[in-house]
Write a structure and sequence with these properties.
521 residues; alpha/beta; 6-stranded parallel beta sheet; 19 helices; 48% helix; binds ligand ME8; protein biosynthesis; zinc; tRNA-binding
Length: 521
């Protein structure tokens, strides 16, 4: 049961609604969902936030290209994103849009306060401007004197601008890193932040723009629009009602337990964001986890290469659980991954259809054949195999719990699948079909079938953060739709499944795929 003392606040990045989202965005959100589900199962009161980052020049330009005003343009895309999260069974508690009043009002307030405190001041931005890219660069960023992005010539421009004095907070930031060695995960990203960004010196950050309109205006100086990252990062507290009439969620959940982000935006979350929070006198998030990137065999996904992987296509063809499983199992969280149809199909066939699906299928079929479809009574360890299977269950639970605390999703799944493998091996070791031939072996046979059903019950509980459909089907076939039998803490008590439970034969949990046909598809 949720206990008010145990809270867990986690966030995904808020995505740009400039286009349809792809498998990379789905990855972060599914990972966040797995963590949120896990913490809920462990009795935490969870707040899982996602949303959309709707302002800025890029979005404005996209809308204009389609002959639309920015707001109706983003409304359409945001509806599609919410539909995608429904298809992926994302259990978010809140979805924030930066165009909402609850967000805008507070961003204005924060900006005004930072100006008043002297953390933000008005000055002049001088930089090399690339007109086609509409971006400023520092001299040292230029490549042969040209734009580092497109290679075209740049010109020296001056623009009135507000600046954030980041430098003032650097010592405190480094001290926070030191006192909280887990703040930036994985650790390699922490060194990258210190060596590549902080040590060379933090220049004051330009936090307003005057070259476009689509954004939150600087209070009292409306020709300036607040820099989209200042606007965006603030979502993590505006969504909790910080600075509003009702800040009860903020009081309950801040500071965040983890901001989940892709590696390319770790810098914003571990330098700019903590400094903003320090300036506001607020506690800093406990952890920022920067995961790796997915590519395809052709490299980075891009429209021009035509290699953007659409998660909806995968769900429709292979089912949601297969996608969620592949995303979190195939690549260690934190490393880069490559999507290949082969690895997707192999994982689905070997791990899901063979290892898990067949285990359920065989168990239910043997119970129908040997015990009239009814779970026998638990009699403890009848054989040494039983004791070893129970020990394997305990090990899997411990390994999974430890991995989840570190957000090592692939390690957690490997631990569960090791137990699934062990349970399959137990069938080979005990050979129930031979036990069934000999009246004198009836106690052993019953014990084997009990151990199989109970192991499946435990597995069905452990997989819940990752797979959202299979557990329900497993409970149906195992005849355990009742609440208490699927509570987390019962996994530690082998023998919880009551005698007399009636199993029900069903369809295979996962269809087997034909590798060759699928790879061509
Ligand atoms: O950066 N592989 O939004 P965004 C893995 N609005 N993850 C990927 C990925 C890939 N190929 N491509 C994208 C923004 N992602 C800002 C964030 S937060 C205050 C503002 C994921 O729509 C990854 O999590 O560009 C990355 O950080 C995020 O999508 C970027 O989404």
């Amino acid at each position: 049961m949720a206990n008010a003392d145990k809270t867990f606040y986690l966030t995904t990045p808020i995505y740009y609604p400039s286009d349809k989202l792809h498998i990379g965005h789905a990855y972060t959100t599914v990972a966040g969902d797995a963590m949120a589900r896990y913490k809920r199962l462990r009795g935490y009161r969870v707040h899982f936030l996602t949303g959309t980052d709707e302002h800025g020049q890029k979005i404005e330009r996209r809308a204009r290209e389609r002959g639309m005003e920015p707001k109706p343009f983003v409304d359409g895309i945001v509806a599609g994103i919410q539909e995608l999260w429904r298809k992926l069974d994302i259990s978010y508690d809140d979805f924030i849009r930066t165009t909402e009043d609850r967000h805008k009002r507070v961003v204005e307030k924060i900006f005004a306060r930072l100006v008043e405190q002297g953390d933000i001041y008005k000055g002049e931005y001088e930089g090399w401007y690339c007109t086609p890219c509409e971006s400023f660069f520092l001299e040292r960023q230029l490549v042969n004197g040209n734009c580092p992005d497109c290679g075209r010539p740049v010109e020296l421009l001056k623009e009135e601008c507000y600046f954030f004095r980041l430098g003032k907070y650097v010592d405190r930031l480094l001290q926070y890193y030191e006192e909280n060695p887990d703040f930036i995960q994985p650790e390699s990203r922490r060194n990258e932040m210190i060596n590549n960004f902080i040590k060379p010196g933090l220049e004051d950050l330009a936090v307003s723009r005057t070259t476009f309109d689509w954004g939150i205006r600087v209070p009292g100086d409306p020709k300036h629009v607040i820099y989209v990252w200042i606007d965006a990062l603030t979502n993590y507290i505006t969504a909790l009602g910080y600075g509003s009439d009702d800040d009860s969620l903020f009081k309950t959940f801040w500071p965040a337990d983890v901001h989940l982000v892709g590696k390319e935006i770790v810098r914003f979350h571990t330098i700019y964001w903590p400094i903003m929070l320090m300036a506001l006198d607020l506690p800093l998030p406990k952890k920022v986890f920067g995961h790796g990137w997915f590519q395809t065999k052709e490299g980075k996904m891009s429209k021009s290469k035509g290699n953007v992987i659409d998660p909806v296509v995968l769900i429709e063809r292979y089912g949601l659980d297969a996608l969620r499983y592949w995303l979190l199992r195939d690549t260690p969280f934190g490393s880069d991954g490559v999507f290949t149809p082969e690895s997707f199909v192999e994982r689905t066939n070997f791990d899901l259809a063979n290892d898990l699906g067949n285990l359920l299928n065989r168990t239910v079929a043997m119970m129908e054949k040997y015990t009239g479809g009814v779970v026998p009574a638990y009699e403890g360890h009848v054989t040494a195999y039983d004791a070893s299977l129970e020990a394997a269950a305990r090990e899997a639970i411990e390994a999974m719990e430890a991995a989840m605390e570190k957000m090592e999703f692939s390690v957690a799944l490997a631990a569960i699948w090791q137990f699934i493998g062990r349970t399959n091996k137990y069938i080979d070791e005990t050979q129930p079909w031979l036990l069934a031939k000999d009246e004198a072996s009836a106690p052993q046979l019953k014990s084997v079938l009990y151990h199989l059903a109970e192991s499946l019950r435990i597995i069905s509980i452990l997989i819940q953060p990752f797979l959202t459909r299979a557990p329900k089907e497993m409970w149906r076939q195992l005849g355990i739709e009742q609440g208490p039998l699927i509570e987390w803490d019962t996994v530690r008590t082998f023998g919880t499944l009551p005698a007399g439970t009636r199993v029900v034969k069903g369809d295979p949990l996962f269809p087997r795929l034909d590798v060759e046909a699928e790879v061509q598809y």
